[in-house]
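Final report, Chapter 2: Outcomes

The project's central promise was a pipeline that accepts a single protein chain and returns its three-dimensional structure in a standardized token representation, suitable for archiving and comparison. That pipeline is now operational. To close this chapter, we reproduce one record exactly as it appears in the project archive, with the input sequence first and the structure output second.
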Amino acid sequence: MKRNVFVSSAAAVVLVAGGPVAAAAASTAGDAARAPTAVTAVPADVSAETAAAAALKKFPGVVESLDKDGSVWHVDVIGKGGKHAELEVDSGSGAVTQQNSDDNDENDNGYAALIAAKVTAVQALKAAVAAHPGQVRSVSWDDDDNDNGKTSRYWNVEVKTSGGQTQNVHVDPTSGKATLSHDNDNNDNNDNSDGGSN
């Protein structure tokens, strides 16, 4: 009989001493199992294509250029009658703000070719990435005068590859053909390495 009382007393001491700790551990484990897992939503980075669409919704027209600077896309749009607007699209939220606009510009003749182009800025960036995969950092309409006096028009798309290299891809505004430009950052790095050894 004394033995049963001793065992019962020892069990009571263990329960009293370990009870709150055991109860707290069981309660914590139970609460963790019942509590919904908190998932912190990280907003997706607004793509060049989405930034262009957002800018055109705010100021209808034709995208002349767009480029990413930190957390902001800068988008230049040519509207009706050659009106030019500079907009910013937040790359986290997609919010659009119009920075300024003007009615006349020195490049009105260039706008006619841009507006008449069969390939838009968004189509150009898609063609560039299809031919040279990566993330678009900028798109711009370029008018270059050749040595023979002719004007060459194309979309210049800057693509950052998964390896971190930057490639400039020229996209024909009529055919949509994408070709890698010879003036890429990779070529600049190669030129610097030639004269770097002593």
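Archive annotation: Residues 168 and 183 are 7 Å apart (CA to CA).
This record, like all others produced under the grant, will remain available to the consortium after the project formally closes.
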